[in-house]
Amino acid sequence: VWSDPYLSFWVLCFLVLLMLVLLVFPWRLFLFVVGAVCFGPQNIFVRKRLERQAASKEDSSEEVEADVISNSGSIPDEGKKGNRRFRQNPLAKLKEKRQKKLAEKQELHQKDP
User: What is the spatial distance between Cα 113 and Cα 106, in angstroms, rounded to a whole number?
Assistant: First the structure.
């Protein structure tokens, strides 16, 4: 139970004073400034910078993908150790299997007629 009358008086005075200050505080101007700082025109520059970084990452990833595909279906080792099977490019293996199946079908169709 709160039983300190002097502290209660000063807490009440502080809260009344705070209420009066906040009552006359220029909230519209304050919120405008906060909005301009948080969501203002500087974010246009931030967005453009992020878009440039994303575009450069896409370009570099496309180059790496082209290298991987032309590199006989395997992902470059880059000094990694471990099971090579997990570093193989599964799409290249599927492509090879499809080509073999198509070649076999073409041979069968040529032999049949």
Answer: 12
CB 88 within 8 A of CB 69: no
The answer to whether the pTM exceeds 0.85 is no
DSSP conformation letters of 74-96: B---TT--S-GGGGB-HHHHHHH
Q: From first to last of the 113 residues of the chain, give the pLDDT tens digit.
A: 678 889 999 999 999 999 999 999 999 999 999 988 888 888 888 888 888 888 888 777 666 555 555 555 555 555 555 555 555 566 777 788 888 988 988 888 887 65
Distance CA 69, CA 90 (A): 11
> How many whole angstroms separate alpha carbon 113 and alpha carbon 100?
21
